[in-house]
Amino acid sequence: MDRICLSIAILPMSQEFGWHPSMQGIVQSAFLYGYMATQLLGGALADKYGGKIVMAAGIAWFSVASLLLPAAISAPVVAAGLTVPAILLARCLVGLGEGVALPTMSNMIAKYVPKEAKGRALGLAFSGFHSGNLLGLLLSPLILMNFGWRALFYTFGLCGVPLLLLWMAVVPGKEQQQQQLERRVVCRKSRRGSRDVSGSSGADVTIGQLLSSRATWAIILVNIVNHWGYFIYLNWMPTYFNQALGFDLRSSSFLAFLPWLVMACGSSASGLLADTLVARGVPVTNVRKALQTVAFLIPAIALQVLSQPGITPTAAVACMTVALGTTSLGQAGFVANMSDIAPNAAGKMFGLCNTFGSLSGILGVTAVGFIVEATKSFAPVFQLTSALYVLGTIAWLCMCTGERVF
Known about the structure:
By secondary structure, this protein is mostly helical. The protein contains 19 helices and no strands.
């Protein structure tokens, strides 16, 4: 919610501060600078100290940072002409806190969830992840129209307090999780004989070793393409519905809700589908390749349709829903593949790959503003993203493996 609320607030903020689309893109990309900076750090810390404490620190950090944004825009700051730097800094700080979340999640699932249930676990985790976008899109216009855009950041920042308390109360610590892991390893050894199944620790695998693998670069390339599209959807979809299709603020937010709803449902479905296929004997490599191919090629087609002139609002919403919803299959594709090839260094692997992805998101979100300002159209953005999906699919099919590498 802290992340997506700016995609709604950017509309009244742009009117208040006189921002053109290029400046809107710069402001919305600020989050990703911080988000990128803590991907690798968060994964490495989670691999070393456990996910519970790292995630707790991230929750506390991004909640406080969300509260800082409206507070930072004081009268003296505005009078000094420092409004934009203050907003950029505040959003960057939010990104620093949220950057540890996904690497930490990947670490915990890779270490403590059995392989046969890994897809479902990732699917459920990402469903919760996308549900935050859903709640943000539902609540943001209501809060904004009644209390103003500044109230969005105060409200969602304060939501971090009960979230942090719940996390600390419910999630087991590293020692408890390690005991569960050791019991599972003992059970595996008893079934397979005395052969060691634990593998190397995450700390034993270096970044250089990860980058030396073709399998890692397959994930990096797909992550770059995925994040290019994902963060464009996340940050620009309400603006597209408002400015290109003519919907008002509330309608734009609620219409953007539908694609995220489909994506949340698709995340759980993709994990269940992947685990079912693996359980039936389909090689993991084939499962990862097939699901990621569908996750890219269907959106590529939908975006080509979306870029056509004269498309109706109904068709545009349908295309956006198909594009965003289908990409959720990638959570059982390239995302799950990180723990396939490096189960004991999944946090580090996720952080490394997501660093490249976040950089792509920065470039994409920023570029959209300049492209729309220059062309007065979102069509070139959709066409470029569609082409990237095709190229990403080719790279994935040539380089992906579902076998353990590290």
